[in-house]
Write a structure and sequence with these properties.
An eight-stranded antiparallel barrel has the order 1-2-3-4-5-8-9-10. A two-stranded antiparallel sheet has the order 6-7. It is 14% helix and 60% strand. The relative contact order is 0.22.
Length: 209
Amino acid sequence: MLKIIIISFAAVYLSASAQAQWKLISGKDEVTSLNKLKTSTGFIGSINGGLEIPFGDLSDNSDLGWNIGATGGYVFNNQLATRVDLTYNSFVPSPFGRTFSVITFRGDFMFGNFGKKATLAYMFGGIGMYSVNIPSSNISVYNANGELISTVHIPSDSKAEFGIAIGGGIGFRISNDIAMFGEAAFCQGFGSKPDVSFIPFKAGIMLTP
């Protein structure tokens, strides 16, 4: 039920982001004093954190996760930008599950509104490397009387694989070059088992040119 609620929220969020982006690009958004300022190219970056929902093999071990990360990139004009995204993702183990962590290092291509309007909206897609780490764990087996029968040690495991992401975000300026933002994406890794796929929800502070 929790996943259905959050997935529904993600669908509404991305739809609203896309609609806001279209309004901004088509010039239908309300004009504010910030709109009158000249747009400049330059650095764009953020610090962020949030929650995420695992899918596939990750969902067999966890129901929910959290993330923290940072981005840095360059705005080429009002509609185009690129960035590098580095994020640490940790998944809380469910009963009988194992702890997973995934470090994503990805390059994104961004399309949207990066001008001096009060509201920012953008879509993005990217590729990069996903580093999956599974620490070692011990599983204890007890009988009906609560007596320990055996303990099974499961060794740690790690792998690096190619991954992609696609998503969108929306932000609100609190000054000429600082905005509060939120974004969501679908991330998918491609490699051997376990399968890595999840949806991160992020919020944070963005620096814009």
